[in-house]
Specification:
One of its GO terms (cellular component) is cytoplasm. This protein has 4 helices and 4 strands; from the N terminus they run βαβαββαα. It is an alpha+beta fold. The chain has a single domain, classed as Glutaredoxin (3-Layer(aba) Sandwich), CATH 3.40.30.10. The protein has a 4-stranded mixed beta sheet. The longest helix is centred in the N-terminal third of the chain and has 12 residues.
């Protein structure tokens, strides 16, 4: 799938939820930009600001909108809504 929307994911090394989310995106052929916040307080702070105070990883953004983490991504996929979000660019 060639997504029109910009997908960003904030991750940390060895985070099983991050691995799960990236695997789901990869299995759907989704291109994404990854930000590793594992060793950077500044990067984690920026992520938390963008994610309305959420500091857990992963935090996933589609066209700048935070959709949440791995569980929320999987739920969107299960409901068939992920593909719609990815193919409807808001920018």
């Amino acid at each position: 799938m060639l997504n029109k929307a910009r997908v960003e994911i904030y991750t940390a090394p060895l985070c099983l939820y991050c691995i799960r989310a990236k695997s789901l995106l990869a299995n759907r052929g989704v291109h994404y930009v990854e930000y590793d916040v594992g060793d950077s307080r500044d990067a984690r702070f920026k992520m938390s600001e963008r994610a309305n105070g959420n500091s857990s990883v992963p935090q996933i953004f589609i066209d700048g909108n935070c959709i949440g983490g791995s569980d929320e991504l999987a739920e969107l996929d299960r409901l068939g809504k992920l593909e719609d979000l990815l193919n409807t660019s808001l920018t």
